[in-house]
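Dear support,

I submitted the protein below through the web form. The confirmation email said the job was done, but the results page showed an empty box. After a refresh the structure appeared. I'm attaching both so you can tell me whether what I see now is the final result or a partial one.
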Amino acid sequence: MTWVPAGLRNLLVGAALLLGTGALQDVMHGLCVDGISFIPEAPPLLGLTVNPLVIQRLLGTRLLFADLIWLDTFIKADTLHERQPFTAVYRAFKTVVKLDPDNILAYYVAGTYLSVIKDDIKGATAILRDGAQYIQTHPYSWSEAWRLPFTLGYNLLWEEQEVEEGAKWIRMAVLLPHAPLSAKRLAEKVSTERGRLEVAARVLNEIFRTTSGSEAKARVEAKMLDVASRQELLDLNESFEVFLRSSGAYAFSKKRQFEAFFRSNGHSKFDLLGRPLGFDQLGKIIPISK
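What the results page shows now:
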């Protein structure tokens, strides 16, 4: 399974480039700042063998190596299952954007892949932030560049729980050219729980739409279901408050309130993920352990 969304730059030449990857990797894993030395075993990713400072001195090869490393990383990433932040996949992608910093799409694709597929949240935030900061000071041609800070905002809001900074990037994103009205409306609500859930749902739906491969889609879908289950709980609790006010059921015991509410709206006593529902100490409906 290779997660490479449609429309990526240079994929048309990917097959030709890959023919030379094996031979080039044998040579490049020996490159260092001072020159060339040979070592017995090559690291798993080409991006970890390349020093961008060396490549930048080789005229005419910088973008070629950026493309080779990009393709090599996606091909090999599925065999790497790391549990710590700033994974080898992140470091390989970092080499790509150092060699080709004007490729704004690379920051976006690498960041979403690290966040959703590889669960490298810290690495995703770092590379998305690099890209979002880059477009603040450099010209760019990607018409959908607003997605880059928008996705950074999602990652901070949802994965890092950095609400204030995440909201800042969301609001910045919708000021960029071509940001759709729907995204601007989400930015207006990003300070609320419902708004944050809607941001997460939008980003994940877009990633799911552009993702190929059953395993990758399953990972995205799991996150989408988590967001949907939280939206369901938010809706239930808002409806529960309305029910209590309109029915006068405040006088009932918590158990009786619970029974009456679910009878009134026909909702199952299980959430979207199949977890039984109950009350917390504040009287809010929450999923409880079976």
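Response: this is the final, complete result; the empty box was a page-load delay. The first helix runs from residue 14 to 19.
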